[in-house]
Specification:
By secondary structure, the protein is mostly beta strands. The chain has 3 helices and 23 strands. A hairpin with a 5-residue loop joins strand 13 and strand 14.
């Protein structure tokens, strides 16, 4: 089908019309109660002295009201979300997490419009990042085709801070992290062998400048992300690999923009000899900025002409680099990105139907050459367990300990990074309130 025929089909009401459609409506709730106790690992703000306690604990609550409507050829989905720390005053955290409509044609074409929680491949570049509790979603138009082993998606986004006739081209601190975005994703499942392959291209526009400054008027700078993902899964073995490059320009507060030349590669093997357990082994390499001297007096920042530190953008980072995610969730001192090597090994065990547990070891190191310091950042161990009480009720808990090196302490500019620990739990209750068909 050529592009002209595809557009005609998308525009034609007969392409979507269905006779004798069955309407369905469901209303669900999702309650998440999350608690954390952490000590060390994060650099102290400039206004805190060395005697400030580096421990913290809090309880977090998230409530979602989920409404789904469907009939043949049409879906509508809305999620109202309130997320806040226990005891927070007011309901400033109330928002629309998702709200979209999707039209599907008989031949596999579809169009989707609204706020969508995107998830692609292993979620390394685009994911919901749901462990961060607030999670990620995007205001987009998505069109594509799915059928016969092929999936092709095109995504368009254009964001504003508000409805304004004047000065509405400047976008900062909005619901999403970019002014505009165009993404193309293609996936193919080979019919004769258990192999899936994906290609991804993103063009992301971010704004720099000051709308009040006539000499530095706001302008949009673009960066590109492109690469692919492979998944080969014969019987008891799963092999995964990915490679991405990052080019274009990154918005900079002082310089306007800085060119980007970064990349990452990953490989992972999982062996599952039985339904009760599996073992995994893998390696991630994310490029870092150029050489930087680290002296005893502190971190001396070198102004780079080119950014070589890879950014995972909108991925689910805690899924890959350790639950604590020292490296991308919390920035290094002065914004320096030394890259990351993550060699890991782990096991998942399911002794009975309702209970699963896992343990993962991470060896962590920078990819950039450092003056006077070794590249090793430290060693981390993640232990997690989950119990499913009944349908819609589950409890998860975990504990992480990081043994950092002098390199970790220097780059984070905080001695507590040498030994950090974090414990957490999540109770999820998801009752179904109402379901009907007519």
């Amino acid at each position: 089908m050529n592009i002209k025929m595809m557009l005609l089909c998308l525009a034609s009401t007969s392409c979507w019309a269905q006779k004798d459609s069955v309407n369905s409506l469901s209303v669900d709730l999702n309650f998440l109660s999350h608690g954390e106790v952490c000590g060390g690992g994060l650099p102290k703000p400039d206004d805190k002295d060395d005697y400030t306690e580096d421990r913290s604990s809090f309880l977090f609550g998230r409530t979602r009201l989920i409404v789904d409507y469907g009939r043949k050829g049409l879906q509508a989905h809305a999620v109202i979300q309130n997320s806040a720390i226990w005891g927070m005053k007011g309901n400033q955290a109330l928002n629309l997490y998702e709200g979209w409509v999707k039209m599907t044609a008989k031949n596999g074409l579809f169009a989707q419009l609204g706020r969508v929680a995107l998830s692609y491949d292993d979620e390394r570049i685009i994911g919901t990042n749901d462990f961060a509790t607030a999670a990620l979603s995007h205001d987009i138009l998505r069109v594509g085709y799915e059928g016969h082993g092929h999936q092709a998606h095109a995504i368009l986004a254009y964001n504003q801070n508000g409805e304004s006739v004047y000065s509405n081209t400047y976008y900062v601190n909005g619901a999403q992290y970019y002014k505009n975005m165009q993404t193309v994703w293609y996936h193919y499942d080979v019919p004769t062998i258990p192999l899936g392959a994906s290609l991804l291209f993103m063009n992301i526009g971010q704004q720099s400048g000051d709308p009040a400054d006539a000499y530095h008027h706001p302008s949009t700078k673009y960066q590109q992300m492109f690469g692919g993902y492979l998944n080969y899964h014969p019987k008891f073995l799963t092999l995964e690999a990915s490679y991405y490059r990052q080019t274009g320009n990154q918005v900079d507060k002082y310089m306007g923009y800085i060119p980007i030349r970064a990349w990452m590669a990953s490989a992972k093997a999982t062996v599952k000899p039985s339904e009760c357990y599996d073992v995994e082994l893998g390696y991630d390499h994310l490029s870092g900025d150029d050489y930087i001297p680290v002296n005893y007096g502190g971190l001396n920042m070198v102004r780079h002409e080119v950014i070589k530190g890879f950014s995972p953008l909108y991925g689910s980072r805690t899924k890959f680099y350790g639950i604590m995610d020292f490296f991308y969730e919390s920035a290094y001192s002065n914004g320096f990105t030394p890259g990351l090597q993550n060699a890991f090994a782990g096991a998942n065990y399911k002794p009975f139907d309702k209970f699963t547990c896992s343990a993962t070891y991470h060896y962590l190191a920078v990819t950039t050459k450092l003056h006077e310091l070794d590249r090793t950042l430290g060693h981390s161990i993640d232990i997690q367990a989950r119990y499913q009480f009944s349908k819609g009720i589950s409890l998860s808990a975990g504990y992480t300990q990081m043994h950092g090196t002098e390199t970790m302490a220097r780059l984070k500019q905080d001695g507590s990074s040498k030994l950090a620990h974090w414990g957490w739990f999540s109770l999820v209750v998801s009752p179904s309130l109402f379901t009907t068909k007519w």
